[in-house]
Each structure stands twice: as structure tokens, then as C-alpha cells.
Specification:
The structure holds two protein chains of two kinds.
Chain A: H1 2-24, H2 29-41, H3 46-49, E1 54-60, H4 65-80, E2 85-86, E3 89-97, H5 103-109, E4 114-117, H6 125-134, E5 138-141, H7 145-148, E6 153-158, E7 161-167, H8 168-174, H9 180-184, E8 187-189
Parallel strand pairs in A: 1-3, 1-4, 4-5, 5-6, 7-8
Antiparallel strand pairs in A: 2-3, 6-7
Chain B: H1 2-13, H2 16-71, H3 75-86, E1 91-98, E2 103-107, E3 132-141, E4 144-154, H4 156-206, H5 221-317, H6 321-333, H7 338-344, H8 346-395, E5 400-404, H9 405-422, E6 426-431, E7 436-440, H10 441-458, E8 468-475, E9 479-485, H11 493-496, H12 514-524, E10 528-533, E11 540-547
Parallel strand pairs in B: 6-8
Antiparallel strand pairs in B: 1-2, 1-4, 3-4, 5-7, 8-9, 9-11, 10-11
The chains are: A alpha/beta, B alpha+beta.
């Protein structure tokens, strides 16, 4: 009986925990991705940063199922929409499992133009942002709260509609040149 | 030269064709004028309104696009917006200033008015006097103004377009007017030609040529009118023929009537003459009646006078005065020996006795003579009264005067009284009142004399014991009446309504004028008279009614 109760509590905890993490990503990945591409198209300085292709690094934690799922899902989206080009170049993706490697190593070893940050646990976001800035890499996330920690662009939900959150200070620091047309429709965080 | 033309024009202006043409021409002219005045103005207004709306839309759109660009200092987007705005060929200038008034970006700054700050937002474009329409639009972020957009849009194209439209409308109006005029004249000709034909036909017919017919073959109202008109003329022709015949007959009849009229006039004149003659005869008869009456009365009196004279003559003839004279002569012869003659002569003795007897005879004669002389004086006085009365009435004028009826009745009766008494007619006077009435005395006397005489004559056949002549006088507030009754045979009901008619009489030697003239006299005096059977027996009553 006691074992049965434990099992019940485990199941409840599992569902609760599984429910909490996905809530950090307000918008499904299949919507986030085209939206992210559109946002990037308004970044006029991006063209100077990229070569023949645009590589998106997906930072995730393998052991964190919510993070892993989003990472895999995003990777699938990028792979499926390989024909879509931005600033005339195709888009590829690289998974960065922060359970196995540090963000610093990952960013140093690979030619990443943009870093997408999935929901993460026990990892300092500001640290990720700091290293990305050093590497002159633009940062994106589907977790709205990460923008306040320094991530440049976040895609959240506001009033039932997608909401673009831009950390303008970070953008200007890193040399991103977002069109005011985008900024006009975005929530600007100037910290 | 001008006058005939003017006269011709005036004649033309009063024709239906001219009225129709002029009225519709004026109407078309007004329509054309309306088109010319209304549509360009309306078009200009519409175009200006549209232009203004478009300019403000462009301005607002640009300001909206520029708002974030200005806010984020996004010059590239500003330039993109400018480039987009410049696609509009009418754009003259575009200037973006920030909230401090600093020009952030501009296109053709020189083309902008220096006093652009005076340009108001949403200013109305009323006319096309200016070549550039300037707008001023605030650039807002979160409802806060962060700058201003000035735009100048050229009106040249609009002006050219409006001018072109005006010209087009002018020519359209002119074309409408000219075509309308031509159409009007064509239509008025089409409508009025049959009418003109009709008018010519009518003129010919009015000149007397009824053989003319309207030559109109259209099937419209004019054609229908022409058909009916032709039928009418045909009827008129027939009627004229009938009228002519009737006129001839009427003329003949008129001549006959004229003849008859003349005859009637002649007859009327004769009747009038006869009437006058009859009046004269009646007047004379009346006079004769009066004269007869007078003569009769006077004659009656004269009979008495004659009797008295005869008695006086016989008395004088048988008078002892002759013997007295003889005795006086004998006495004169023997005066020398008077004593011897009386004592010794037997004649003397007889003479003395004769003288003694003579006194008584002479006294008797004197009594008889005195008595007859007295009678004679009375009769002469009566004759005098009768004649005086007649003379009095004859001398009276025809003027009206207020008289007591009883007095006139009594005076008139004086003439007839003796005659009535002679015929043993009982006279009864019964004056209930003695009213004074305004009458013409001679006419009233004439009436009374006639009625007295008629009553008297009516009673000739009546038993003398029953002969009764009654005069009654009465009045109320409104009228006065004289009622003259006799106990004669009366008047039949049939004759009651005729007796006052002129010429009606029941007498053998009557003229039928007496009562007629009496009735006329009564009418002339404002009264009237009528006859009625006696209420209490045989005889008739004549009533004279006078207004009070």
C-alpha cells in the first residue's frame, strides 16, 4: 500500500514537473522557428556576421527532458525547413548539450552565428549571455524571462499572441542593427 | 426695314412653336448651365476632398512608419519610408523633425515653406490657389509626440485634372445645349406643323370656306383632333345649311311679326284712342249723370215752384183787387157827392157793402200768396243749394286733403237725397266713428254719387216698403271703411268678380265705366273697394277701404 502511494506521488510529481518546464516556453517550437527567422531578417547587421550559412546553436540539457525535447524539436524544424534562407544563406543547427560540455567550449569549437537557449536548469543564463557576447554571437530564447538575464531576443506570449521581447541594450552592445519596424512591434527591454 | 421684322418676330413669339421652342430652350439652357456650374464645382470639391484625405492618409501612414524609426533613431527605416513616399510623384517635400525641432531627415527642404510651423494639422483644402498642399502630422509613440512630419504634395496634377474636367464639362454642356436646341426646334416643328396646318384650315373655314378639311394624317392627339375637327366642320356645314333655311324662315317670320306688330301697334293706338274716347264718354256720362241728377232735383223743386207760381197766378187772377180798382174808380167818380152817392144811390150802398166784403177776400188772398211765396223762396233756396253743391265739387281740385268722411257723405247725399225720397227709399246713416282721411274730395264724391245712384236704381224693382239705403262709417288703427248697402236684388256670385272690370255692366244703357273708374279712383287714393252680398238679406254692400 505504501509502495502504491509512493508510485502515485511519483506520477503526480512527474506530471507536475513535466508541466512546469514546458511552461517556460510559451510558444510551440514550430511557431517559434519561423518567427525567429523573421526577427533575424530585421537584423540588418546579421549579413556581415554570417558566411555562406547561418548556424544556430541549440543549448540544451540532455537530462532535462523539457530542454531536450525543445532542442530536438527545433533541430527537426530547421532540418525540415532547410530550403528557407535568411539573408540569402541557408540555416543549419548544432546541438550543444550543456550536460556534457560547457557553453564556452561549445561556442569556441563550433562556428555558431546564433545561440538558441532552451529552458535550462541550474545554469547561469547571464554567464551564457556573457560568453556569447564575447564571441559576438546573437542570442535567442523561447523563455521570456531569459531576456531580462541578458538574452538578446525572446519569443514569448502576451495576451494570447506571440510577443517579441528585445533586450535593446544587449542588441546595441553586440552590434545588432534591428529595424525599427521590428522594434515597433516588440517589447523592448533596455537593461 | 426693322419694323416689319420686329412685327414678324412678335407674331412668331406668340405662336405655340415659338413658345414651345423658347421654353424648352430656356430649360435646356438652364440644365446646361447647371451641368456647367454644378459638376465642375462638385468635382473640384470631391477631388479636393479625396486629395486631402489621401494626403492625410499618406502623411498619417508615413508618420506611423516613421514613429518607431524616429524613436529608435533608425535612419535607414526613415530613408526607406522617404523612398517609399517619394514614389508618389506629387510629393514636393518631406521633413521629419524631432520633438526639439531638429530636422532629422528631409527631402527637398528648399521646396518646403519656411513658415511650415504655421501649417495646422488636418487643415482643409478649400481651393486650388496654392500649388502645394502642406500637411503637418505628429509622430507618436505610445501616444507621446516624439517628432513631426511635414509633407508637401503637389496640386498641379489635380489642378490640371480639374481644369481638364472643367473644359470637358463645358464642351459637354455646350453640346447638350446645342443638341438640345436643335432637338427642340426639330421636335417643335414635328409637333407644330400639323397644328399649323390645322390653324390654316381653321382660318380658311373662319373666312367662310366650309369645304376645307384639315390635312393631318398623324395618329397622335393632333391627328385625332384633326379627325374630330373635320367631323365638326362637316356637322357645322350641315348645321349652317339648316341654319340658313331656319334663318330664311325666321326672316319671313320676322317680317310677318313686324307686320303683326305694326297691326298690333295700330290696334293698340286705336284701343288707346277708344279708351280715351270712352273715358271722355264716361266723363261726359258722369257729368251727364251729375247734371241729370242736378236737373232732376232742380226739376222736382221747379215743379213745386211751378205749382206755387200757378197758385199765386190763379190767386192773383181770381183776386178781388180788380173789383177793388173798379169800386175805387166808381168812388172817384162820385167823390163830389159822396154822401148822396152812398145814401141815395143803390150802387153806393152796394159799393160800401163790397168794401166790407173785400177786406176778408184780400186777407185770404194775402195768406195764400204769402204761403206760396214762402214755398217759392224755400224751393229757390233748395235749387240754389243743389247748384252750389255741384259748383263746389266741380271747382274742387284733385289735391288730397284730410276730410271727415261723414261730411263728404252728407254733402254728396244732398244731391241725391230728394231723388231717393221721391222713390220712397229709406235712408239710414250709421256713423260709428267720424274719421278724418286724406282723400281727393272730387274723386270720393264721384265714387259716392255713383254708388248712391246705383243703389237707388237697384231698388226700383224692390217693394217700396223694403227700400232701404244704409251708409255706415267705421275705422280701426289701420283702415277706415264706408259701407253702402241697398236692399236691391244684389249681385250674383259670378258677377262679383267682374263688376269692377272695364266695360262690364248689367244696365241696359250702362257703359261699364262707373264702377271701374270708382275702383281706379280708390286705388289712386291708396285705398281699395269691393262688393259683397248683404249679410242679413237681399241686396249688396259696397265697401270702400281707406288707409288711416
Amino acid at each position: 500500500m505504501r509502495r502504491f502511494q509512493l508510485k502515485i506521488w511519483f506520477v503526480i510529481f512527474f506530471f507536475i514537473s513535466a508541466g512546469i518546464y514546458p511552461q517556460q516556453v510559451d510558444i510551440p517550437v514550430k511557431i517559434q522557428y519561423p518567427l525567429a527567422l523573421k526577427i533575424l531578417s530585421f537584423e540588418r547587421a546579421l549579413k556581415k556576421r554570417i558566411g555562406k550559412k547561418l548556424t544556430i546553436g541549440i543549448a540544451y540539457q540532455e537530462k532535462f527532458r523539457g530542454s531536450r525535447n525543445i532542442a530536438e524539436e527545433l533541430q527537426t524544424q530547421i532540418a525540415n525547413n532547410f530550403k528557407i534562407k535568411i539573408h540569402g544563406v541557408p540555416v543549419t543547427s548544432v546541438l550543444i548539450n550543456l550536460d556534457k560540455t560547457s557553453i564556452e567550449n561549445a561556442l569556441s569549437s563550433t562556428d555558431i552565428n546564433i545561440l538558441y537557449v532552451t529552458p535550462l536548469r541550474v545554469i547561469n543564463i547571464q554567464n551564457i549571455q556573457k560568453i556569447a557576447r564575447q564571441k559576438n554571437i546573437l542570442t535567442l530564447t523561447g523563455v521570456s524571462d531569459y531576456v531580462e538575464d541578458g538574452i538578446m531576443v525572446g519569443i514569448g506570449l502576451k495576451g494570447g499572441k506571440p510577443n517579441i521581447i528585445i533586450n535593446l541594450k544587449e542588441a546595441k552592445t553586440i552590434g545588432a542593427d534591428f529595424s525599427s519596424k521590428l522594434l515597433k512591434f516588440s517589447t523592448i527591454i533596455d537593461i | 426695314m426693322l419694323r416689319p421684322l420686329l412685327a414678324k418676330f412678335i407674331n412668331w413669339i406668340f405662336t405655340v412653336k415659338a413658345k414651345l421652342a423658347l421654353l424648352i430652350s430656356v430649360l435646356i439652357g438652364l440644365i446646361a448651365l447647371f451641368i456647367y456650374l454644378y459638376f465642375p464645382a462638385n468635382l473640384q470639391k470631391f477631388v479636393l476632398h479625396q486629395f486631402q484625405a489621401k494626403a492625410h492618409s499618406i502623411s498619417a501612414m508615413s508618420a506611423f512608419n516613421l514613429s518607431s524609426a524616429l524613436y529608435f533613431d533608425d535612419l535607414e527605416t526613415i530613408n526607406e519610408t522617404f523612398a517609399s513616399a517619394k514614389q508618389n510623384r506629387d510629393l514636393v517635400y518631406i521633413i521629419v523633425v524631432d520633438d526639439s525641432g531638429k530636422v532629422i531627415a528631409s527631402h527637398n527642404l528648399k521646396g518646403a515653406p519656411k513658415a511650415r510651423n504655421h501649417v495646422t494639422e488636418n487643415q482643409n483644402l478649400q481651393s486650388l490657389e496654392s500649388a502645394v498642399y502642406s500637411t503637418k502630422t505628429p509622430i507618436l509613440i505610445n501616444n507621446q509626440q516624439i517628432g513631426t512630419l511635414y509633407m508637401g504634395i503637389s496640386l498641379e496634377q489635380i489642378i490640371a485634372h480639374v481644369e481638364e474636367s472643367k473644359r470637358t464639362i463645358f464642351f459637354v454642356s455646350l453640346a447638350v445645349f446645342l443638341i438640345g436646341i436643335l432637338a427642340v426646334f426639330g421636335i417643335s416643328n414635328y409637333i407644330t406643323i400639323p397644328m399649323i396646318r390645322m390653324v390654316k384650315t381653321v382660318q380658311l373655314i373662319s373666312d367662310g370656306d366650309l369645304s376645307q378639311r384639315a390635312q393631318v394624317t398623324t395618329r397622335d392627339e393632333v391627328g385625332c383632333l384633326a379627325d374630330n375637327f373635320n367631323k365638326m366642320v362637316e356637322n357645322l356645314e350641315n348645321t349652317q345649311g339648316e341654319l340658313k333655311e331656319a334663318n330664311d324662315r325666321s326672316e319671313n317670320r320676322a317680317e310677318q311679326l313686324q307686320e303683326e306688330m305694326k297691326e298690333r301697334q295700330k290696334a293698340e293706338q286705336e284701343r288707346e284712342a277708344m279708351h280715351k274716347e270712352l273715358n271722355e264718354v264716361a266723363r261726359r256720362a258722369g257729368m251727364a249723370d251729375v247734371a241729370t241728377s242736378v236737373l232732376h232735383n232742380v226739376g222736382n223743386v221747379l215743379n213745386t215752384v211751378n205749382t206755387s207760381i200757378s197758385v199765386i197766378g190763379e190767386t192773383l187772377e181770381r183776386s178781388k183787387i180788380t173789383g177793388f180798382f173798379k169800386a175805387t174808380d166808381l168812388l172817384k167818380e162820385n167823390i163830389g157827392d159822396i154822401e148822396g152817392f152812398i145814401l141815395r144811390n143803390p150802387k153806393g150802398k152796394k159799393l160800401l157793402e163790397y168794401y166790407l166784403k173785400l177786406e176778408e177776400s184780400l186777407q185770404n188772398e194775402q195768406v195764400i200768396l204769402n204761403k206760396n211765396i214762402e214755398k217759392l223762396e224755400g224751393k229757390v233756396s233748395l235749387i240754389n243749394d243743389v247748384i252750389t253743391a255741384q259748383q263746389t265739387y266741380s271747382n274742387e281740385g284733385l289735391y288730397s286733403e284730410k276730410l271727415a268722411l261723414s261730411e263728404v257723405i252728407d254733402n254728396a247725399m244732398k244731391i241725391q237725397k230728394n231723388s231717393m225720397l221721391q222713390h220712397k227709399i229709406n235712408l239710414h246713416k250709421f256713423y260709428k266713428t267720424t274719421p278724418e282721411i286724406k282723400v281727393q274730395k272730387i274723386k270720393l264724391v264721384h265714387i259716392l254719387m255713383n254708388l248712391y245712384k246705383n243703389s237707388k236704381e237697384a231698388m226700383f224693382e224692390t217693394d217700396p216698403i223694403k227700400r232701404l239705403f244704409r251708409i255706415e262709417v267705421d275705422n280701426d288703427v289701420q283702415y277706415a271703411w264706408i259701407r253702402i248697402s241697398d236692399s236691391g236684388p244684389g249681385i250674383s256670385e259670378e258677377n262679383l268678380g267682374k263688376i269692377f272690370s272695364y266695360g262690364f255692366t248689367t244696365k241696359e244703357n250702362g257703359h261699364g265705366f262707373g264702377l271701374h273708374s270708382c275702383a281706379n279712383y280708390m286705388t289712386e287714393m291708396g285705398g281699395k273697394m269691393w262688393a259683397e252680398p248683404n249679410r242679413d238679406g237681399a241686396g249688396a254692400t259696397f265697401v270702400l277701404q281707406f288707409p288711416m
